[in-house]
């Protein structure tokens, strides 16, 4: 496999990058500027590409993102705090984001000779994000087979789609991912907030996996109350 990985610069996609690199299957990284407030994640993706010595392509689709209004990631809306299992996390949905990114990625992969597009969606995303669910991944892969029929043979590699983020945390330890160099927080400040959904999920996953988390958080206690709330 020679995969083009959609890499945000977050914990999940960077871990998948290191996993693919360990198998000599990573051909390059593709990141997107869609107008997200946490755009600094792209810098983390760039650093990942440098560390792994693979090409890094950044696509500016902010003009498209500007039309996908109503999300706390792109609009002037407060980023919700808490666990991903809470309904208020739907404010972080950017409609069709993965579908748009994957469509572009498959075109780039076909044009540049990659035989797979890799994506680090996982089971923890299913509740909130419809374009992270197994059915979407399966059907999108089938659709691309038709879209590129006779043009290129590009598969879709999403190894975490049926697992949770705890498995990603285990892989991060297994493949010696420099976790502190990844960026997940939706707030996009100088430091991970420790309170938004992606921060809570990140801390929880590492705790469940028994993996040390070197990330610096503004709030190191909030996640426990957030997790307890959804489990009660």
From TrEMBL:
Matching entries from Pfam families are given as:
QueC (PF06508)
Its catalytic activity? 7-carboxy-7-carbaguanine + NH4(+) + 2 ATP = 7-cyano-7-carbaguanine + 2 AMP + 2 diphosphate + 2 H(+)
UniProt keyword annotations, A-Z: ATP-binding, Ligase, Metal-binding, Nucleotide-binding, Queuosine biosynthesis, Zinc
Taking the record's annotation, the residue ranges forming a coiled coil are: none
- InterPro entries linked to this entry: QueC, Rossmann-like_a/b/a_fold
Instruction: Provide the function of this protein.
Output: Catalyzes the ATP-dependent conversion of 7-carboxy-7-deazaguanine (CDG) to 7-cyano-7-deazaguanine (preQ(0)).
Protein name as it appears in the record: 7-cyano-7-deazaguanine synthase
Q: Which organism is it from?
A: Oceanisphaera marina
What gene is behind this protein?
Answer: queC
């Amino acid at each position: 496999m020679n995969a083009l990985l959609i890499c945000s610069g977050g914990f999940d996609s960077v871990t998948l990058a290191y996993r693919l690199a360990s198998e000599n299957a990573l051909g390059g990284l593709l990141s997107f500027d869609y107008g997200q407030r946490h755009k600094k994640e792209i810098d983390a993706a760039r650093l990942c590409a440098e560390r792994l010595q693979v090409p890094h392509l950044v696509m500016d689709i902010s003009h498209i993102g500007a039309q996908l209004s109503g999300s706390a990631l792109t609009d002037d809306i407060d980023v919700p705090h808490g666990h991903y299992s809470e309904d208020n996390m739907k404010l972080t949905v950017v409609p069709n984001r993965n579908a748009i990114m994957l469509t572009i990625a498959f075109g780039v992969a076909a044009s540049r000779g990659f035989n797979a597009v890799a994506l680090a969606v996982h089971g923890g995303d299913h509740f909130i994000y419809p374009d992270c669910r197994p059915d979407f991944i399966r059907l999108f892969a089938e659709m691309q087979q038709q879209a590129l029929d006779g043009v290129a043979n590009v598969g879709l590699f999403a190894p975490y789609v049926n697992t949770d983020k705890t498995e990603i945390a285990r892989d991060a330890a297994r493949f010696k991912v420099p976790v502190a160099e990844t960026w997940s927080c939706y707030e996009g400040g100088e430091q991970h907030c420790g309170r938004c959904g992606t921060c809570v999920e990140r801390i929880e996953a590492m705790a469940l996996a028994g993996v040390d988390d070197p990330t610096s958080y503004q709030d190191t206690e909030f996640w426990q109350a957030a997790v307890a709330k959804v489990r009660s």
